[in-house]
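Notebook entry, structure prediction.
Reason for the run: the old model in the group folder had no record of what sequence produced it. Starting over properly, with the input documented here first.
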Amino acid sequence: MMETRLRHSPRQRVAAICPSFLREFSVEVPYRFVCDGGVNVSNFLFHIVISRLLGPAHYGAVVRF
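New structure, fully documented this time:
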């Protein structure tokens, strides 16, 4: 008799191995990664725009704080 292997998704594999809090953590990580990346990009763009608008002398006062 031929044995067939069932293919499980990565989420199903994690669910079988990890306790519930690790499962929840593994599901939330991609969302957290995307949100943190969005905040970092917006912060970068803010500093680019403000530095161009204020110029070096005035932008230095903003960066010190």
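Summary: Residues 29-65 form one domain.
The old model has been moved to the deprecated folder.
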